[in-house]
Specification:
The chain is built from 14 helices and two strands, in the order ααααααααααβαααβα. By secondary structure, the chain is mostly helical. One of its GO terms (biological process) is lipid metabolic process.
């Protein structure tokens, strides 16, 4: 892999100017937010409901009619799984994630309130607001502060200390992808600290209670209630729901990993955020993020996290605006000599796979400067 730094070091004055341009872009965009954005998110909400209803109806048809006529089982079952999976993907990525970020609080509509929305996933939105909205977006890719670096399971960057456990991480990564919603659900419990004896079991249990209740509701909904509606033909619905959830988990894992763990993504030491300026914060977000080029359909299905750079810059701006903002963001980065990390989904995913395989093995971390604005060394 090419390890030549691709970013120009910026002075304090340049960092301030860099931040000012990005802040101005945000202000111009926010000033134009209005009815079109409200119509958009309501259309997504409707699509989630209709696709979900269609998917469950088709699975019910496959279960009952398919028991007597096999082609119905395969055709209706396949369409039902795909429709339900698409509903769950849209709800998770474009609706839930963005609403929970507060992107649509300005609508004053309880259905799109970021502090009240509860999504169709095993984890609670309260935990997500803590681990993702605050911890990850504040300390993006800062080692020891951002738990999303490997999620406590994977060694993605050479700066992470190697342990023999990581030899199994190619398999661990597959299991994590399949069960992604469950891994995210327990992320804030920090079970590694409990295993190391740094946290008491009763404290972990107290933190787990709301998570356990949410998990229970999800299990009852997808694996008990809806399957039982099919009576003696419940197994088809049960399997269909499970496959739809796994498809959603795999897609979510793919998009998130491609947005953070490509070859050009960097991590930073704790010291880099001491007295961090606004410009240095922007620069850290840029260097720790990866975009995915793919067009409108990919933007929609990824919750516009195909524009991860713009999302890390402007997490509370409606994500449907990121594609337009990206044109200006890329131009601003070019003016300041900063690499704008983007590539096709196969290209970015290939780099993620390389990281997972390469860093399962021992490697030595390269020395890095402490300050992003001073030209942090690129490590891959």
């Amino acid at each position: 892999m090419n390890t030549t730094p691709r970013n120009r070091a910026l002075s304090a004055e340049e960092l301030d100017a860099f931040a000012a341009e990005l802040d101005a872009l945000r202000a111009r965009t926010v000033a134009t937010i209005g009815q079109a954005d409200a119509d958009y998110i309501r259309a997504v909400f409707a699509a989630v409901r209709y696709l979900g209803f269609a998917g469950r109806a088709l699975l019910m048809l496959a279960a009952i009619a398919g028991a007597f006529y096999t082609p119905v089982l395969w055709i209706a079952g396949t369409l039902g799984v795909l429709s339900l999976a698409l509903s769950k993907i849209l709800e998770n990525m474009e609706l839930g994630h963005n609403v929970i970020h507060g992107q649509f609080d300005w609508m004053n509509d309880p259905a799109f309130n970021g502090q009240a929305y509860e999504w169709d996933i095993a984890g609670t939105s309260d935990n997500w607001r803590k681990t993702h909205n605050f911890r990850h977006h504040t300390w993006t890719n800062v080692r020891g502060m951002d738990d999303d670096i490997g999620y406590g399971l994977l060694r993605i960057f050479p700066e992470q200390r190697w342990r023999p456990f990581y030899l199994a991480q190619p398999l661990v990564a597959v299991v994590f992808a399949v069960l992604f919603e469950w891994g995210i659900a327990i992320q804030d419990l920090r079970l590694g600290r409990w295993f190391a004896g740094k946290t008491r079991a009763r404290d972990v249990l107290r933190e787990f209670r709301p998570v356990g209740r949410k998990m229970g509701r999800q299990v009852l909904k997808d694996y008990v209630f809806f399957p039982l509606l099919a009576g003696p033909f419940f197994l088809t619905v049960l399997v269909g729901n499970a496959v739809a959830n796994v498809l959603r988990n795999l897609w979510t894992w793919l998009i998130i990993f491609c947005g953070h763990f490509t070859a050009d993504a960097e991590t930073f030491p704790r010291e880099s955020v001491r007295n961090e300026s606004r410009g240095a914060w922007y620069l850290r977000q840029l260097r720790g993020s990866s975009n995915i080029a793919g067009g409108r359909l990919l933007n929609l299905l990824s919750g516009n996290l195909s524009h991860q750079i713009e999302h890390h810059f402007f997490p509370d701006v409606p994500a449907n605006r990121y594609a337009a903002m990206a044109v200006e963001v890329r131009a601003i980065c070019a003016r300041y000599g900063q690499h704008y990390n983007t590539g096709s989904l196969p290209r970015q995913f290939g780099q993620v796979l390389w990281r997972i395989l390469r860093h399962a093995l021992p490697s030595r971390a390269k020395a890095a400067a402490d300050t992003p604005g001073a030209g942090l060394a690129v490590t891959r």
